[in-house]
Amino acid sequence: MYNCVGDIMENIKLDTSVQYIKGVGPKMYELLNKLGIYTVKDLIEYYPRVYEDRTKVTSIDEFVKDQNVLFFGTLVKPVSVVYAKRKKIISTVVTDESGSLAFLTWYNQVYIKDRLKEGETYLFYGKVGSVSGTRATLDSCSIYDVEQLDKIQGLYPIYSLTAGITQNYLFKIINEIMDKDILVREVFSEEFRRKYSLAEINYATRNVHFPKSFDMVNVARNRIIFEELFLFQLALMHMKDSNLVTNKTNVYKDMDCSEFLKIIPFELTNAQKKVVEQIKGDLSSNIVMNRLVQGDVGSGKTMVAAIAMYLAVKNGYQAALMAPTTILANQHYLELSGYFEKLNMNVEIITSSTTKKQKEKIIERLKNKEIDVLIGTHSIIEDNVEFNNLGLVVTDEQHRFGVKQRMKLSSKGNIVDTLVMTATPIPRSLAIILYGDLDLSIIDELPPGRKPVETCVVNDSYNQRVYNFLRKQITEGRQVYVVCPLVEENEELDLNSVEKLYEEYKQEFKDFNVEILHGKMKNKEKDAIMQNFKENKTNILISTTVIEVGISVPNATVMVIENADRFGLAALHQLRGRVGRGSAASYCVLKSNNKSPIARERLDIMRKSNDGFLIAKKDLELRGPGDFFGIRQSGMPEFKLANLLTDTRVLEQTQQAVKDIMAQDKHLEMEENRNIKEALFEKYGEQLRNIVS
Ligand code: ADP
Ligand code: MG
Fold first, then answer.
1. Distance, CA 421 to ligand 2 centroid (Å)?
2. How far does residue 300's CA lie from ligand 1's centre (Å)?
3. CATH 2.40.50.140 fits 56-152, yes or no
4. How far is the CA of 348 from the centre of ligand 1 (A)?
5. Potential cystine with 141: which of 124, 239, 296, 455 (Cβ 3.0-4.6 Å)?
6. Cβ of 632: how many Cβ atoms within 10 Å?
7. Confidence band, pLDDT 50/70/90 cuts, at residue 336
8. What tens digit of pLDDT does each residue of 211-265 get?
């Protein structure tokens, strides 16, 4: 154990573990870890959520019911403790110059009896319970010594908590650290700060925790947000810059895809044609392609990717398509191999269910250029997969992959063109910022003849009616999906709920084929079940969200979503997009017993709209971008203070600042930019390694 805590406290640095801070024992250390706080730096960067206004000292005669007040009080009687049945009631009465009385009560905190002495004056903060004439009551006030006024007065920080940690505790330990004057590294030079009106970082951290006024909060927050967004955009610009390889060798000469267009059973939509032209422009230029294709569910992104792959092969290169799940990879394979084989292109697939032997053979043929197009899950980025001359990489549903994975696949070719497809519809302005390392194409049109999916929202009292409806659809030859949400990322629980549902449906639909699909199954099993469903051997498919992305079974016309309120709207839209793929009318039944206004409002948006962009916009407004992007999945950073939606003014500033610095000192070699470079690598090093040296 550390019996020389004093010494250690003197030596506290940014990377010191918080367990060496006074007041942090092993138990609190674990709780702090839960909040993501391990080091002193983490603690300093644990910024308050909001602030309580404690700027004014209120005299007792001015108290108003329900108001939070900071006030001086002199005890007019000793503290009394009453031992009631369940709890101990501690109380006293205080007064101030106004002569009014405040009756103060606490529960179970018996130590207060020794803390407060009759005739002495203290500083209190609490919420006024009741006021009647010259008497007021307050429960559970915080107690401070009069000398502490200077520290207490101001805006009191309110932090996000976890069970076992209180506001006062965080306040205390952060105060402890602030008293030590541990300096955070200043990233920006004085000149830079003057140019963009930024506060010095240590002034900002101090004032973000313990501000005296809301003006100070703004100055402090602005400084911190600026740094977060600046480093993020700088990282993106470096990625983009590294991708901007000019003089690439694989400039395509033959841009004629009429042969391919002849064999597909429909005409491209105008939106698809437009995007194909943009891709052709990239492929025939001497700049490496890095394009994001964004299109609503069902807009036909696969076909656009297929044309790009066709052109790659036609010009002598290999192409790869990476999908987020085995099921989806299989589906792409089935659809695309049909077209490609007619054009004498060799297509293969590698997934986690490919045997070692099969895989070895495929890799051998890949090296010998006997395979033109390789489709697969992330297993195609494994190190032992080597291409002969990979020219084009397509990733489907990019929001499922991190930036890193995308880069790893690209690194398998010499200079590789990249196409990324996503159905996550985000506002264009934001997309440009988020995917700043990519060019953006949007397919803003659905193939003709698509009917909107009719959507309704019901609670459990409609169960029988829903069953009757499903029965009718199945009797007409149609198929049904029933989806169960993920619960708290707890796989056991998920399995329970989906299996329970399966039993219920089997019971109800004894005369039909009901099957179950979930993430815990082996890939082979999953594939077999999906295949049965595709071949219409299964009437009802009960599943977890494994069917979320991309699956296409045109004969399925009904999507029932259980506990629909647990899903994000973007996810619901994706799920709903699994039906309405054929010519028959399609339906989506959103089940929810949640009565909260927000939940109702969100589901109502789904009922009213089939437009992914509109839904995404509303979802963003209701939930904020953190949730919306599924940030952890996408490899996007989580900001501590910045909000990509609301901090647009700072975003514009930082975008300009990044441009300026890139123009002047692209590789950040100047002395004045050294700290920026270090901070950039500390935060985004993993993504940037090998890029900026
Ligand atoms: P998503 O953009 O969601 O990935 P898909 O590429 O899976 O959409 O396309 C959805 C369905 O629409 C597929 O069955 C595909 O064959 C079909 N499709 C694609 N383009 C067209 C088109 N121009 N006209 C008619 N059907 C199309
Ligand atoms: Mg798709």
1. 8
2. 3
3. yes
4. 21
5. 124
6. 10
7. very high
8. 888 899 999 999 999 999 999 888 877 776 665 555 566 788 999 999 999 999 9
Residue closest via CA to ligand 1's atom 4 equals 301
Cα(607) to ligand 2 centroid in Å equals 23
How far apart are the CA of 272 and the centre of ligand 1, in A? 10
577, 579, 576: which is closest to 561 by C-alpha?
576
Going from N- to C-terminal start, the domains of the chain cover 1-55+155-182, 56-152, 258-443, 454-609
Cα separation of 577 and 610, whole Å? 9
Residue 60: DSSP 8-state: G
Which residue's CA is minimally distant from atom 26 of ligand 1? 447
Tell me which of 264, 267, 441, 552 to substitute to probe ligand 1's pocket, judged by most ligand atoms within 8 Å of the beta carbon: 552
Cα of 581 to ligand 1 centre, how many Å? 8
Report the CATH number of the 454-609 domain: 3.40.50.300
CATH topology of 56-152 equal to that of 258-443? no
Question: ∠ CA(624), CA(630), CA(631), 5° rounding?
Answer: 90
Q: Are the C-beta atoms of residues 398 and 406 closer than 8 Å to each other?
A: yes
Q: Round to whole Å and give the CA distance between 526 and 234.
A: 42
Tokens of 481: 């999906």
Q: Which two tokens stand for residue 26?
A: 């092993």
| Alpha carbon distance 309, 347 (integer Å) | 11
300: DSSP letter: -
In 120-275 the beta strands, taken as DSSP E runs, fall at: 121-132, 135-144, 154-158
Instruction: Write down the pTM of the prediction.
Output: 0.62
Question: Which ligand is nearest to the Cα of residue 396, counting in written order?
Answer: 2
Task: Give distance in angstroms: CA of 591 to centre of ligand 2.
Answer: 25
Residue nearest to atom 25 of ligand 1 (CA): 447
Question: Whole-angstrom Cα distance, residue 524 to residue 264?
Answer: 30
Mind listing the pLDDT tens digit for each residue in 606-663?
A: 999 988 878 877 776 666 544 433 333 333 456 888 877 678 788 888 988 998 898 8
CA dihedral 296→302→305→306, nearest 10 degrees, is -160
Percent of the chain residues past pLDDT 70, beyond the cut: 85
Residues with CB under 6 A from ligand 1: 266, 268-269, 272, 295, 297-303, 423, 447, 550, 552, 581
CATH of domain 258-443: 3.40.50.300
Name the 3-class secondary structure at 290. Answer: strand
Which protein residue's CA is at the shortest distance from atom 10 of ligand 1? 298
Sign of CA dihedral 162, 167, 168, 171: positive
Question: E strand or H helix at 395, and its extent?
Answer: strand 390-396
Looking at ligand 1, which atom is closest to the CA of residue 264?
A: 16
